[in-house]
Design brief:
Helix content: 40-55%
Bound molecules: beta-D-galactopyranose
Low-confidence stretches: 1-21
Number of helices: 20
Mean pLDDT: 94
CATH class of the largest domain: Alpha Beta
Oligomer: single chain
CATH superfamily of the largest domain: Periplasmic binding protein-like II
Length: about 425
């Protein structure tokens, strides 16, 4: 064989393998860039690679996904949408309403998704009766992650009421640590606020955060919620502003801080650091919220594509995401719980088992509510209006809770 022929042959082979690879690729836009999140993402990447589906990574850092959604808008505007996008709640519905998403009905019907995905998730995963996204998990925001040694030093009893919570925070302060590990970013402030509002009652959470009732948004209970949020803000350290959530988790992991009020993705950081529930850290529902859950579900929305190969790769990805074995393996690492009701809890640690039991209990009792902070209570415009007021309150910009509640009612009214 002449040199030229060898060269030609290998160029052709290269071109062939490149085109084959790209047809069966999925390009995935996501915001899973922390240690725990990346570990969970690897479970997915490896699962897909094992099935011959190539992974083109498009990470956009930023907890809660705001930056990722801005990047997505730019890609779609340039007519270059990624094939699969991590997305939350109302954002999925908004993109579907724009006609941007593909259709997963075939794989959903073949695999019987209707029967195993909880209705609360189907409300976001379907549009006009058609499956448009594949839910990979259920997270919830009303959790507190406590350093076990710091809790022991503060009396050893996990708080179950607001008064007990304040007492533990005070004891941690007296012990010379930062009581509350927190990052001052709007979505993190809002995550704490989800739990504070829920602690004043599920009916109040629903009336204010989901029904957007003006009386509930601006009334006495909301004033109390803001007073509690303002009280919590007195327990953070001087450098909290702008800190990423996983760095706040690290403060609790290494004992610099006593606790973090954060969704169960925080557990992924503890596990990644080699910490075990019960021994090194304690997971509790935010005091006063046991029995109720504010949830958010990460889903992979599939954007419309123009080739059968790409559609097939999307369907394969969706099928992999929905596989019961995968849902167990992934969520064990991520800190979340499965997005289907038929996955056994054997592989989960105690916090995961509690998460699964709490979710089932809240669901059957009618105490399962979408998280405002994570896009499952109201569309982005309202969510952002809530973020603004909550962050201003956390940073001491209102005279008191009543002033913040009045500001919240008018901000939401303007955004609706
Ligand atoms: C949430 C998302 C979680 C986690 C968290 C922090 O919105 O649902 O999976 O990634 O943000 O980044």
């Amino acid at each position: 064989m002449t040199m030229m022929k060898v060269l030609k042959g290998s160029v052709a082979a290269l071109a062939l393998s490149a085109s084959v690879a790209s047809a069966a690729d999925v390009e995935v836009l996501h915001w899973w860039t922390s240690g725990g999140e990346a570990a969970a993402l690897n479970v997915l990447k490896e699962d897909l690679q094992g099935k011959g589906i190539g992974w083109v990574d498009m990470p956009v850092a930023g907890g809660g996904g705001e930056a990722a959604m801005t990047a997505l808008r730019a890609r779609v505007t340039a007519s270059d949408a990624p094939t699969a996008v991590q997305m939350l709640g109302f954002d999925i519905q908004d993109w579907a309403a724009e006609g941007a998403l593909g259709n997963l009905n075939e794989v959903a019907a073949a695999e019987g998704w209707d029967a195993v995905v909880p209705a609360a998730l189907q409300a976001f995963a379907k549009y006009d009766g058609n499956w448009i996204s594949a839910p990979v998990n259920v997270h919830s925001t009303n959790w507190v992650w406590i350093n076990k040694a710091a809790l022991d030093a503060a009396g050893g009893k996990a708080p179950t009421s607001w008064e007990e919570l304040v007492a533990v925070l005070d004891a941690m302060k007296a012990n010379g640590i930062t009581p509350l590990g927190h990052g001052g970013q709007a979505w993190q402030d809002a995550t704490v606020f989800d739990a504070v509002v829920l602690s004043l009652g599920g009916d109040f959470y629903k009336a204010s955060m989901i029904d957007l009732d003006a009386g509930a948004l601006g009334g006495a209970q909301m004033a109390e919620a803001f007073n509690r949020l303002i009280k919590l803000s007195s327990y953070v350290d001087a450098n909290f502003s702008g800190r990423d959530w996983n760095l706040a988790s690290a403060m609790v992991i290494n004992g610099e801080a006593g606790m973090q009020m954060m969704g169960d993705w925080a557990k992924g950081e503890f596990l990644k650091a080699g910490k075990a529930p019960g021994a090194d850290f304690v997971c509790i529902r935010f005091p006063g919220t046991q029995g109720s859950v504010t949830f958010n579900s990460d889903q992979f929305a599939m954007f419309g594509v123009n080739s059968d190969d790409k559609r097939a790769a999307q369907a394969q990805m969706a099928s992999s995401v929905m596989n019961p074995g995968f849902q167990s393996a992934f969520n064990v690492v991520k800190g979340s719980v499965p997005a289907r009701t038929d996955v056994p809890n054997d592989a989960f640690d105690d916090c995961g088992k509690k998460g699964m039991a709490d979710l089932a209990e809240a669901n059957s009792a009618g105490n399962l509510y979408g998280s405002m902070a994570h896009g499952h209570a109201a569309p982005a415009a309202v969510k952002n209006a809530v973020y603004d007021v909550v962050t201003a309150a956390f940073n001491g910009q209102y005279a008191d809770g009543a002033a913040a509640a009045a500001a919240l009612a008018s901000a939401v009214a303007a955004a609706k």
